[in-house]
Every structure is written in structure tokens, then in C-alpha cells.
Write a structure and sequence with these properties.
single chain; alpha/beta; Alpha-Beta Plaits; 2 domains; six-stranded mixed beta sheet; 10 helices; about 70% helix; rod-shaped
């Protein structure tokens, strides 16, 4: 039993040596480990060294008592001045570990968590926002539109959409260059943002195509917004090489009805109205309901 009590210290030493070697191997194989991981490794290493020193001390002391080592070890290590060394080491190691944890590791862990959260938020933003105009991209617009469609179906509140296309955009790019074309798209996005409410959803859904989803907005109110947008765009046309750029948009309006199968149908009706605006000469607003009415009238005739 006495022999087992003496040997147990060396078993503990072997375990802590394994921990220390594991730490060293990990650090050698991953020399660029940084931040809270490095601090945590330092805390574990300090505690490991403290355990090794303490267990070696008492392993030699009790080993000398039970005949594993020369008896001189007992006399030497029983010295009260040496006996206090392991305890003093415990106090120092505890203070260092506590200081690292409270003053370095915990603040660093909180900071790294906040940075990681910010990176996640940035990635979500990049996935949802069009890089050129700052508006929502088509994918995110469709996701938000599905939610608004569900609200329309549940509460029977009016919902309208504006499909907007830049007139003669290819000609602008061909004549003035893509930088001017990009500036034109930014102007359109700024005008869209200036006419919309906080609850409205604006997006760039194609190369030169935009959409504006208007919750709580009937056809008449949507037409007012669209006409205002249509009138404002030429007012913001830039001057390129002393020449005024005749910037304009065509807009199609569709309002949700219970007979529609979903948001895709609403957008298709808006597209149809947009094509009617283009067919009629551009720089104008067309209503999907008027197109449907005309088709019905033609069918009767």
C-alpha cells in the first residue's frame, strides 16, 4: 500500500508529461495559432508545469521514504524551507492563471465572438445586397416578397409592385461606357430609395431592371409613386462630356388579387405592364389591370 502511494505520484507525472508533450506537438504543428487559443494553451501549460513540479517533489519525497530512492531525498526534501516551494508555486501559478483568464482570455474571447458575429452579419449583408447599387438583390427580394405575399393573403391588405427598367440602357453603355452606365444605375437606385417608405422593399432584380414592392398600397397609390419616380429620374440625369444624358425609365404596375397564385404571378403581371410601357414609347407608367381589361375587350369584340 505504501509502495502504491509512492508510485501514484509518478503515474500522475506521466499523465502531465503526456499533456505537456501534446501541447508542444500541437503548437509545433500549428505555429500560427493565435488569439484566445494561444492564451488557453498558455494557461494549460502553466498548470501542467505546476503539477509536474509538485508531483516530482512529492514523488521523490515519498519514494525516498519507501525505498524507491536514496533516503537522503527524504532528509533534503523534508526541509521546511523546501517544503513550502510547491505550495508557493501553487499560489504563483494560480495567480498567473487567474490573471490570464480574467485580464486577457475572457476579454479576448468576448472580442473574438463580437468580431465573428460581425463577420457573419457582413456575409449575410453581402449575400442580400447588390454590390453596385446597395439595393437588395433579386434572391433576397424574392424571399422578402414571399413574406409580404403571405401577409397579404392572411390579412387581405393591399399589395402592389413596380417593375422598373432603364430606357435605352445598352445605348448608354455603348456610347458613354460602362462607368456612365453604372452611374445611371446608381441614380435610379437613389431615386427608388427617395420615393419609397421604410416599409417598402426596393431591389435590383436584373442588369438594368429594378423592383419596388409596396405593402399597404393599392393601385391608385402605386401609380402616384410610379409617376413620381418616372418624373424624378430625368431631373437627376447627369451631364457627360458637356452633354446631358437623357435618362428615363419605363414602369409596370401590378396589384395583388386573391385570384393570383403567388408572388411570381404578381411579378409577371408587373413585367407585362412594363413591356406595355416600352411598346407605347417608354418613359411612362402602365397598369397591369388596364392590359387585362384591354385583352378582355378585344376578346369580346
Amino acid at each position: 500500500m505504501h509502495l502504491a502511494a509512492a508510485l501514484i505520484y509518478w503515474v500522475v507525472i506521466l499523465i502531465w508529461l503526456t499533456v505537456l508533450v501534446t501541447l508542444l506537438v500541437f503548437y509545433v504543428r500549428n505555429p500560427r495559432v493565435f488569439g484566445t487559443t494561444r492564451l488557453l494553451l498558455a494557461v494549460v501549460a502553466i498548470d501542467t508545469l505546476r503539477n509536474l513540479v509538485e508531483n516530482v517533489y512529492f514523488g521523490l519525497y515519498f519514494g525516498g521514504q519507501y525505498g524507491l530512492f536514496p533516503a537522503t531525498f527524504v532528509t533534503l526534501l523534508a526541509n521546511p524551507y523546501l517544503l513550502i516551494v510547491p505550495k508557493a508555486l501553487n499560489v504563483v501559478a494560480g495567480c498567473v492563471v487567474l490573471g490570464l483568464l480574467l485580464l486577457r482570455w475572457l476579454p479576448s474571447a468576448v472580442t473574438e465572438h463580437e468580431v465573428a458575429k460581425q463577420h457573419v452579419d457582413d456575409l449575410k449583408t453581402l449575400a442580400a445586397i447588390d454590390g453596385l447599387t446597395g439595393l437588395y438583390n433579386r434572391r433576397h427580394f424574392e424571399a422578402l416578397s414571399v413574406a409580404e405575399w403571405a401577409r397579404f393573403q392572411r390579412y387581405l391588405r393591399p399589395l402592389s409592385i413596380l417593375i422598373i427598367d432603364v430606357d435605352h440602357f445598352k445605348a448608354i453603355n455603348d456610347r458613354f461606357g460602362h462607368d456612365v452606365g453604372d452611374s445611371a444605375l446608381k441614380i435610379i437606385s437613389n431615386v427608388c430609395n427617395s420615393v419609397k417608405r421604410d416599409s417598402d422593399i426596393s431591389a435590383r432584380i436584373g442588369g438594368e431592371e429594378f423592383a419596388l414592392l409596396l405593402p399597404e398600397t393599392n393601385e391608385a397609390a402605386a401609380r402616384i409613386v410610379a409617376q413620381r419616380l418616372c418624373d424624378m429620374v430625368p431631373e437627376h440625369s447627369p451631364t457627360v462630356h458637356d452633354e446631358k444624358l437623357n435618362l428615363s425609365v419605363s414602369i409596370g404596375i401590378a396589384t395583388a388579387t386573391l385570384s393570383m397564385s403567388g408572388i411570381a404571378t404578381l411579378m409577371k403581371r408587373g413585367d407585362d405592364a412594363l413591356y406595355e410601357s416600352k411598346r407605347a414609347g417608354r418613359n411612362r407608367v402602365s397598369l397591369a389591370s388596364e392590359i387585362v381589361g384591354q385583352k378582355k375587350l378585344q376578346a369580346v369584340e
